[in-house]
């Protein structure tokens, strides 16, 4: 019998096959699988992705792949016949299969007292929400890095402001995919200090901050990728520290909410901004927080 592993000791990574089967794009299922697997340390999935599975012949090929690489099968199938084919095939192969959305859909159906739609890919319909997201994406691209007049920036839901390399652009793009019109304006020493944004009435202006050490690291990586030297104020620690301090003071002076992105992913920064927008909307409506 092998000795027990001491608490905190490292372990070898566990690899396993996970089959993701969807009759739509598979985006929902892929995101759910990643979120769940991230809860387990030392586990590395070997993903097999099957999107737009809408025929019995396609399902047969899926089951052949499952048989060749045994593992967990996750699905978001809407079509009853295809579900039954997959479930029967997994029983025959003695492979676990899980309808990823089943618990949530079932609970909502019982709560609402409503039948579940059998329409495949309903969340990807070309409806008003879809076109709003596309419009927001166009807006984010057209108003990136300080582009646009004050009048055009007035059309934004949120304007992000911060020194160079504080994830302004990717955060705007992420927000656009949520249907939020986002622009960004960089703070450039000696050129742009964000003062013009104080004239904006409609959009929420949010300042993005970051620790000097982290910012220097990011900027050096950026210069390395461009095969550029490091001999500039752009990566000088004292200069960067002064730059970030001035940015923080400018945000405080103008009363703008700030978000420290030092240890935040783009998704987490965007979520914080969405919360700020929601709180602002609630205050305007006079709703209780």
From TrEMBL:
Keywords: Kinase, Nucleotide-binding, Pyruvate, Serine/threonine-protein kinase, Transferase. The keyword Acyltransferase does not apply. One of its GO terms (molecular function) is ATP binding. It is an enzyme of class 2 (transferase). It catalyses: N(tele)-phospho-L-histidyl/L-threonyl-[pyruvate, phosphate dikinase] + ADP = N(tele)-phospho-L-histidyl/O-phospho-L-threonyl-[pyruvate, phosphate dikinase] + AMP + H(+); N(tele)-phospho-L-histidyl/O-phospho-L-threonyl-[pyruvate, phosphate dikinase] + phosphate + H(+) = N(tele)-phospho-L-histidyl/L-threonyl-[pyruvate, phosphate dikinase] + diphosphate. InterPro entries: Kinase-pyrophosphorylase, PPDK_reg. ADP binds at residues 162-169. It holds the Pfam family Kinase-PPPase. Its EC number is 2.7.11.32, 2.7.4.27. Transmembrane segments: none annotated. Belongs to the pyruvate, phosphate/water dikinase regulatory protein family. PDRP subfamily. Bifunctional serine/threonine kinase and phosphorylase involved in the regulation of the pyruvate, phosphate dikinase (PPDK) by catalyzing its phosphorylation/dephosphorylation. PANTHER family: PYRUVATE, PHOSPHATE DIKINASE REGULATORY PROTEIN 1, CHLOROPLASTIC. This is Putative pyruvate, phosphate dikinase regulatory protein. It comes from Brevundimonas naejangsanensis.
């Amino acid at each position: 019998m092998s000795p027990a592993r001491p608490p905190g000791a490292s372990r070898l990574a566990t690899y396993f096959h996970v089959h993701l089967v969807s009759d739509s794009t598979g985006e929902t299922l892929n995101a759910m699988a990643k979120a769940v697997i991230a809860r387990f340390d030392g586990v590395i999935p070997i993903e097999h992705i099957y999107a737009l599975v809408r025929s019995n012949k396609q399902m047969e090929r899926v089951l052949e792949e499952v048989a060749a690489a045994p593992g967990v099968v996750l699905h978001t199938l809407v079509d009853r016949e295809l579900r039954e084919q997959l479930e029967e095939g997994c029983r025959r192969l003695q492979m676990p299969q899980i309808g990823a959305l089943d618990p949530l859909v079932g609970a909502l159906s019982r709560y609402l007292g409503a039948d579940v739609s059998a329409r495949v890919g309903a969340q990807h319909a070309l409806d008003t929400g879809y076109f709003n997201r596309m419009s927001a994406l166009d807006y984010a691209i057209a108003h990136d890095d300080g582009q646009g007049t004050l009048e055009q920036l007035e059309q934004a839901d949120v304007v992000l402001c911060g020194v160079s390399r504080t994830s302004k652009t990717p955060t705007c793009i992420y927000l656009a995919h949520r249907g939020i019109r986002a622009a960004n304006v960089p703070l450039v020493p000696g050129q742009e200090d964000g003062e013009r944004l104080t004239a904006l009435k409609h959009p929420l202006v949010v300042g993005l901050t970051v620790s000097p050490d982290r910012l220097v690291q990011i900027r050096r990586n950026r210069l390395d990728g461009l095969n550029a030297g490091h001999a500039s104020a752009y990566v000088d620690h004292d200069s960067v520290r002064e730059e970030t301090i001035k940015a923080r003071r400018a945000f405080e002076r103008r009363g703008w909410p700030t978000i420290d992105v030092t240890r935040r992913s783009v998704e987490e920064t965007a979520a914080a901004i969405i919360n700020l927008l929601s709180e602002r909307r609630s205050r305007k409506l006079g709703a209780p927080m």
